[in-house]
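Structure, all two chains, one model.
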Amino acid sequence: MPEIKELVTGLADKHGRTRESLLPILQGIITEERFISDDALTEVARELDISAALVYGTATFYSFLDTKPRGKFVIRICRTITCDMKGKKQIINTLEDLLKIRVGETTKDKNFTLLETNCLGWCHKGPAMLINDDVFTELTEDKITEIIRDYMRNI
Amino acid sequence: MPDKKLKRVDIIFNEDCNCNEVLTNSLKKSKDEILKEILDSGLRGRGGAGFPTGLKWKFASQEAEKEKYVVCNADEGEPGTFKDREILTRVPLKVFGGMAICAKVIGAKQGYVYLRGEYQFLKADLEKSLEEFHAVLKDIGFDFQIKITMGAGAYICGEESALFESMEGNRGEPRNKPPYPTVSGFRNKPTVINNVETLVDSFMICRIGSQKFMELGTTDSRGSKLFSISGDTPIAGIYELELGMALEDFVEEFGDGDTKAVQVGGASGFCVPRKKFKETIIGFEGVPTGGSMMLFNSSRSMYNVLKNYVEFFEEESCGQCTPCRVGCQQLKKGIEAIKKGEKSASYLKTLQKLAETMKVSSKCGLGQSVANSFSSIVDNFKEEMIY
């Protein structure tokens, strides 16, 4: 809790305390924590002097501002038709096997969350995915295994 | 028959362009001179809606308000579109330059690039280019600054008024129109909001002149356009082509020899089946597109394509107005029920009526355009929806 308070205060100092600062502050929390906890939400409300309901209502509108616990690495697979046609399903199966979780879940060690997302803008190089802010394209089962093993080694 | 054959063009990514020089020379011109050039070129917005760019600038320039804004809409979220990412990666100075020229015309001091959350990885490089750009402006003595603001994974924020709401720290829910952004946009001040590509086109028109731009394309669709080509094609990628070509020529060049349908304009665009390739023109007089071209060959189920689109809309609907929120849910439920045999084939007609109702009663372009793909796919591939 004290760390959250510190983080939110720091972000408010940086981005300001007006309503326009809300999204940058929430995005800053995501960068650090990968999700916005109830504590963080109330802290932001206090810092900007608006109701927690407003903060919650705004955060839950945006799919990248998660309010549910997420892992250190959030994997988002593009689910749009062109990535689907290029074998998105195999990629998801492989990821589910590797991480031993289903889409929407987080690993027990809280390192990985597996999600689907809408068009990532890499349709000519599908299937594509994001891990946090990093992009990976033209995925194959071998490639994805290697990428995830890399991440696992570096945790 | 269309009189234009498929022709590749090199304006947007043209590397012979000395951006700083073009910027300096353009800013030396009077605002009326610039405005005339943009109006004469016939340039229409490249995001998909196709509003005449010069008119938009003119309206904003006529507002008496002192505080005005230029916003670059880089919330590229339409399925099958990826050209803006490429522009921002390769020629960011042209985008910023277009914004500065617009600022000169309308009298703005502050600009914003609203970048979608999925493109966060571009931000650091863009900030670097911005430094260079701001330095050039300082040398010229032109008072204009650009800031980058980040989206957070909401397709609807590509809708201009939703984008302003998002920039102001709110839920990205579209506003009522009118008033239009040129009167009341960001912070309720006069704002010009243009697509990334439109800004580059404006910049390049200032360089090559409206006459050269006008020579390309047709009466209704002047100039060239970037196309994001994906799906069943051996050469997926980004191509700049002259507007007004026949879809048949396009398929001949980019198809895999077995193209069954082309989705023009993404999930909110139209599906054109093989039998209509010949008569279909790509441009504002035919089927308009923000650049998304998805090709499907005969191995693909158009039911899966439609279901994918409807799921997309259901998730991305902001939920503010009932026709769109409930309509998307019911369309999805409906096609699933027909496929499973729980509803008869005639139920498709009811769903199409619903889509038409959404078109006239939804608050913004999202709900209004669901019927485009829904009806064009259902009309042309009815059997695939049922069996």
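Chain B touches chain A through 48 residues (CB under 8 Å).
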